[in-house]
Records
---
Amino acid sequence: MKTPALLSLICLLAVSAGTVRANDPVENPLQPKDPKSFTLSDARHLLFRAGFGGTPDEVRRLHRMGLEKAVAWLVDYEKSPDILGPIEITKPEPLDYQVFRKKSEMERREINNKRRRTDQGKFRNLRSWTMNRILHSSRPLEEKMVLFWHNHFTTSYRDIRQAFLLAKQDDLLRKHATGNFGEMLQEVSKDPAMLLYLNNQQNRKGRANENYAREVMELFTLGLGNYTENDIKEAARAFTGWQVNRRTGEFLFNRRNHDFGNKTFLGKTGYLGGEEVLDHLLEQKACPPYIASKIFAWLAFEPDDETLRQALGKTLKRTDYEIKPLLRQILKSEVFYSEKSKGSQVKSPLMLLVSTFRMFGMTPPPADTVLAACDSLGQALLMPPNVKGWEGGLNWITTATLLQRYNLSGYLVKLGDQDSLTMMSQKQRKQFQSNMKKIGGARGRYLRRLASWDSGVSFIGMCQVMEPGSIEDLVDKLSETYLFAPLPPERRQALVDFLAGKDGSEALDVDHLGTPKAEAKIRRLIHLLMSTPEFQVC
């Protein structure tokens, strides 16, 4: 059974999707936005969709840049310093199998367990580095696009079990994140992590494994319905012998395992190797709109209009699959800033957490704490559920994860500062600490870390800057600043009633905000605001 909050969220997205459809541009679906009409609301939308959000001051700074310079700052991120730099994950020490085979079964098991633990430690370092880039990088669009490509060219540590190969793949995706899709496709198809994940290591002449051939068409280039089963079989033959050198972790073309015979693939006949198959995929009419529409959906909304899809594909084809021109066109288009786009995306667990830290100006918790929180909400970074990646949208929301989101929001704003415990009575503090100890496993560990984490935020100060004239004014200003969808009248009134003390608590006096009781009241207000369906979208 769906909860009322979940039903409200579904209705909210349905209204967003339908409100502007009749007003969407038809003749020129990617009509450029008039730079003079670039509003503060537009700047906030841009910062959230081309990054992970920001404080009101950061939004105002982006707005002052103007549309052209704001988009240039985001897209041409190479001009900004890479303050975190690369990570070096070393490849595993080669195993001497002659010596290994002479060991006892118990010794071999211990050696394998030790190697596994070492690699898991490297993977934890890679995940922490990735999360730290998302949390702290001064190049938000780079991280947003790297995350996109990780979800497009999907692999997972659960299957590969080699942190070194995932780190190499991240380098590849980062290198091409806003570069040329054709070049990225060729390199990804020879990427060891990808070859292992989709079983091309087992793809040999006379015993073709079709996994990569199928996914490179269905998920990576064309989409369903634009190829046949015979095309899959012929493409699989072309990728035979594309393997991984297990000792070096590098791509290996094994001529003995490669099928050099003629093939017929998507209407083309002759000798076709893997490179030729990939080039032919890029020539297909379905490829540019498929790739461009996925990028558009990542940044704006799912393009259900064929005119828009074809216009996006035309840009990508015209520029020979260069990604930056497409990004500039999308981020400067009228449709990107339309009401259909704003507030139409359900925040992923990662987006929910990172954007909350950013827009409230919080000092983020350690990366491993944020990763654990993301994991608990269903988004384990670098470990997507399957080859399709995270489906996103309402798939992020279930009755269980929605409740977890609300509870986690309480930790972020009510228990996010050291002052929280001091606001409690001694009895309350002991009860809280006792309850925390009872929560076991990884969830208990990260919640305990959150409970003692200092976010550095004064919620009183945040509200004082807004200079509210009344409790109604405070609710409206907070909603306008931190929500992408307007509160319905009944939810707005519930927040006003809470501040007025109609729940039996002490009413808030907006003229005297500088008290511990006011701070606690405002924190509970922010928690209530974050527990609305409107806070779950951006």
---
Amino acid sequence: MLSSILRKITSLPLTIESWALSAIGIIFIRIFLEHYSSNEAGRFVLIDASTIIHYSTFFIAVLLVSTLIVMFFSKQPLKESATIALFGFMIIWLPPLLDLIISWGTGYTMHYLFLLPKDLLTAFLTMFWSTANTGITYGIRIEIVLVVIGSFALVYFYTKSILKSLSASILLYACIFALVSLPSMLGLFQRQTIPHFVSTSILNSKIISNSSYPAQSSYERVLDVGFNSLMTQVNLAIILVVGILICAIGYREKLKVLLRNSRPERILHYSILVVVGTLFGGGPSFFLSWVNVLSTVVTITAFVFAWLVAVCINDIYDKEIDEISNTNRPLPQGSFSNGEFYSLSVVFTILSFIAAYSSSMYGLFFVLAFSFAYYIYSVEPLRLKRHYITGALIIGFASTSAVLAGFFLSNNQKEFLAFNPLLTLFLVILFGFGSMVRDIKDYEGDKLNGISTLPVKIGLKKAKIVIATVISLGMLWVAYYFESILLTVAAIICLLFIWRVFFADVYKERNFFIAYLLFLVVFIATFILR
């Protein structure tokens, strides 16, 4: 019977979109059920955006962990493992239903475990039966027992190995235990009670002011929003780590191709700009809170995924150009199809927006602005990259968005005018002209496809002179503005190298980015030491 069920399940069609949408559907039904079984009178929970996103990232983390363990121990391909895990995922509907039945309709409050190490170990060894009936309720405990038995049976069916089956079921239980005990895990090595540690960490950071309007809500509600944002960030970190492990096992070659195509130098560019903006807005003291550090990392993650979306979309619409100028990219080589890039774009967009939302309201706005800017940059009918001025301004705007996201993440003032408008305009122009370096290597393909870049318009040599001059003026102005001798020396050295790179016999864009990123690193060091 199990054989026929698994054979039927694993033969069903599955795409990234159908898997993700099905998982979200299962999660929303669980949230609906939990609203009745875990609802507390007079407490606004479960139906606001921060809670829904928090719960969704938690359950997606559970689903991905389950998929990884099934795939690793059963040795089934990723598609089959993901399908099995998705069908089994519907068991999350069971706990709220069981709680309602056991309690005769009143239910039990579900929440994370907030236990010190000694009590945490006891809870692990007793499968939660040492804890109160709230938090990890009777329904959840029964669900976990069924999951452990089911994972043992599944792995044994495929491997006929008791050792592998036991290992899989114990590891899955340990992972689920860690996920439902995340606050306790975060405070594992400190002496405060876990609730006090978590609340103090939130209140000593800027995550509340970045996620809500404190003056408009009660203290308890504001703390709830901060907690939701924090746990969303932690769950998202788990999702990314487990997701990478799944891809490394199931799609190793495609993952390598995707990483090579991600333009790592530009990822570093946007990541460093977020850090620069954060230092400019809040100074080094902002990073004294581990919650603030995590928020910064998550903001960077949001821009990284937004950039990966831009890469996928741009490669789809630049396929003809890349067949001439960038033949090593995935689409010309046939490593990926257009459909696969579209699917990846959807997944990366969702991850980007969730990460941005959990970091700050401004972070979400600037990531949205960044994403749509790159969309109109690459896609018809606007395709603003066709003209070098509009294309440069769009790239300049996208780069400035990363700086502003970091600035408003750490700055106490949340008004747009807190960041000097003239400085914003300067950055847009500077980053815009600096972005024209990408047009140097694409010169031949752009010329054949009628893309009006600066090198196509005035010639390659003259364009190099103009671009290098603007970059030089920008770096020197930054050094002058911050009145730093160290930054001035770094700017001169980097500029000498950049001019040499531009007019070398063989132009290598990566060498330019090495010099440029080193200048940004020196800028950060200078700012910290001030």
